[in-house]
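We store sequence with structure; for instance:
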Amino acid sequence: MIKDAQFLRFRQFLGEGDTLYLAALKVGMDTKTARKYRHADRLPSESFTPKTWRTREDPFEEIWPELQGRLELNPGLQAKTLFEDLQRRFPGRFPDGQIRSLQRKIKAWRATEGPPKEVFFDQVHTPGELCASDFTCMNDLHVTLAGQPFDHLVYHFVMTYSNWETGTVCFSESFESLSQGLQNALWELGGVPQIHRTDRLTAAVNNLGDRDLFQQHYRALLAHYGLRPQAIQARKANQNGDAEQSHNRFKTAVDQSLMLRGSRDFEDRWVYQQFLSEIFAQKNSGRTERFAEERLRLGDLPTRRIDAWHRRQVRVTQGSTIRIRSNIYSVPSRLIGEHVDVHVMAEYLEVWHGAVLVERMPRLRGCRKHSINYRHVIDWLVRKPGAFAAYRYQDAMFPTSRFRRVYDALLEHTPARTAKDYLRILELAAKESESGVDAVLGRLLEWNVPITPTVVLEHLRHDLGLPRAMEVIVTTLDLSSYDLLLETREDLPLPDQQTCMSL
């Protein structure tokens, strides 16, 4: 098709005296076509007539009313699905090459007669009014800490007007992580917007296990900062598009920075958090002008942060354990039968009995897991060695792989005394030194000698010269030599005046 620009250049060359053939050659036009447009009064675009006729027979003309009925009943049907159904029902009638014809026919029907599509309405963002947040999984970036996989999430916070953003590393979509991440963001922001938009927070509610309790905690958190909640509709992630799109751009930026860095391994979590903070700072550096507008309209922060945890009262079972959100944790056996207060934080649990902090332990990630500290139950396991073989949490009774190897060796050589001897060795680890016992076991396994509690104790205290647990050796220092620096040597002559002047 001849373009308007071609036509205008062609007419220009004709006006300058070029022949029809030469003018057509200059603009890349065929001579016959040039002869047609030589005396035209309208541009090619103005002379265009839409094509309303077919150049070949429609292979779907007879079957189209049925296909149209199916599409009206189920608009989500794909052309490929309908075409494969036709091939099954009419063998040999519709070759594979006709699928594109059906796809174009259905596409044209949907554009002219099909059901209306969802409309996305552009929103006007006001400075300092709305912030949005959500959790994003970072596992697909394959970050490691000291060589170990680091599965984690990032609580991502975005101001919708300036797109200023920040984030906090966390491990679950829990209320505690939400509270900690939101408060970190607000205090880094230096003010409080008016509205906080999130998704339905289904995962956080499920982790807490009680929707009413979650709503109570969440509304108290927002009330403390003067924020109004706003939740999107279920399964409508586009309504929180600012956070969702920021997820993609942020994760892409992290991935690219990791490539430039040349390694995805970090020394520890603090170094990794600093790495993420630098990325946020770099992304925010180009948003200073709009961010300055937002800062002027932010509300004041409260005088203090609110605690990012909640309290649960539970009773210690006969197995010296407590259950917190479908996970099992061990506590000292002296608490059996007692009610304890558990402060559930984002990453830790604190067990309180009255005003006394009894235990502080890492919080498990996920559900239906257990964290058993062998030191909590070893005293009674030693007294009841017969319970060890079928103990539900037996896997927690092997602090290192060497302990497991020793247990297997005892099971092979002295099966009748395996549980009793192994538990005595484990008791030494609990009361003497776990690292010391582990070193002794490594040496004994290397020597391939019989292992008994007595042998381990003797090697622990004598043969390997290992210090006992909590043994601190302080060397006495003689400070008298420093006194010599303060004494004046009377036997040295003072310099005379002429010497001083020459100096």
